[in-house]
Amino acid sequence: MNYKMIIEYDGTRYEGWQKQKHSDETLQGKIEKAFEKVTGENVQIIGAGRTDSGVHAKGQVVNVHLPYDLNAENLKNELNEILPDDIYIKQCTEVEEKFHSRFHAKSKIYEYNLRIGSNKDVFQKRFIWQFAKPLCIEKMKRAAEILQGTHDFTAFCNNKNFKKSAVRTVYSIEISTSNDILHLRFCGDGFLQGMIRIMVGTLVEVGENKRDADSLYDVLKSKQRSNAGFTAPPQGLTLISVQY
């Protein structure tokens, strides 16, 4: 049987989503251990998004195959009793055997939040980049328009050994403010390692007048990571949802 789950987590203390040989502190690893305790099965959880260390999720989608049928609601409840309190399964449903959470995803939405006011909030520091400097929002919006569309995003990838196609389509980048928080919402068909955080860092440099918005045309054409901006800190980034 194949089960689809929607999961939220605070990624602060984890070394990313993907299981690693030399670390027990990954989200995939924690959830797979919980499955083993509940079902007695050594399973592989497939996540739609491989979030980096320190990145959060409100709508991570996973699927997992089990050799027998279980009540989905009971499975969800038993797993939640075992999982750490910073990981929570919001929904569990039985789906077709062929469903694959990563390969069948049509788009993903991420949101990055940073504080642009001078005041800091210690209770939000795990979920917001406390940038605490003014930015020119209109220039950032102009630069964001250039990043939208289908491009080769090699310059916005932190994986130097990435060999596959770096062509991705960014459907939209929405920039808005509420009080002194700047929200950047990205929707695309997929994102390279570090891609959103590099885009955020580059847009911040535009907002600080450290580079022109139109320079992003040349950055994309160059396919050189060194020509793009810095990688923004992970805590401001959250995987919001995955569309199928």
TrEMBL record:
Coiled coil: none annotated. The active site is at residue 52. Its EC number is 5.4.99.12. Substrate binds at residue 110. Gene3D superfamilies: Pseudouridine synthase I, catalytic domain, C-terminal subdomain, Pseudouridine synthase I, catalytic domain, N-terminal subdomain. It is an enzyme of class 5 (isomerase). The keyword Isomerase applies. It catalyses: uridine(38/39/40) in tRNA = pseudouridine(38/39/40) in tRNA. Homodimer. Formation of pseudouridine at positions 38, 39 and 40 in the anticodon stem and loop of transfer RNAs. PANTHER family: PSEUDOURIDYLATE SYNTHASE, TRNA PSEUDOURIDINE SYNTHASE-LIKE 1. Belongs to the tRNA pseudouridine synthase TruA family. This is tRNA pseudouridine synthase A. It comes from Dialister micraerophilus UPII 345-E.
